[in-house]
Amino acid sequence: MEPGHLLTPTPRIQAWTAEKCQVLQQRITLSESDADIRSKTKVMVTDPARKRRTDPGNPDICPVYDWHKLFSTPERDPGRLDWVRKGCTTAGIGCIECKSAMAENMIKWIEPVRARRLDYEAHPKKP
Fold first, then answer.
1. How far, in whole angstroms, is CA 106 from its chain's centroid?
2. What single string gives the DSSP state of each residue in 16-28?
3. Cα–Cα–Cα angle for 101, 26, 77, nearest 5°?
4. Mean pLDDT of 89-106
5. What is the pTM of this model?
6. Are 24 and 42 spatial neighbours (Cβ–Cβ below 8 Å)?
């Protein structure tokens, strides 16, 4: 039997800055601190048509919403995707609030991975 593929609900995500050449600055490594994750996600590009906090946005063209689909899953944060969609399209939330919520869920996701990484660094001979 030939193996198939398994895609997440977001198999491809957009770059989070407007400059394609900044790819190396756009990464979040497993060794990042929570503060670094918050700092890096705070500068993510959002819906380009949403110029002011009072302007409604379109989550379907916003890279941050794609990241929410990865890290704000119903299992991890029930209702978060609906909150983002409604808040964005009605200007009920701002882009900074949206990015902050996504960053918190990314931190929750990465924490056990980071802990295992630190354990292996502390005990390199551990099987």
1. 6
2. SSS-GGGGGGG--
3. 20
4. 96
5. 0.79
6. no
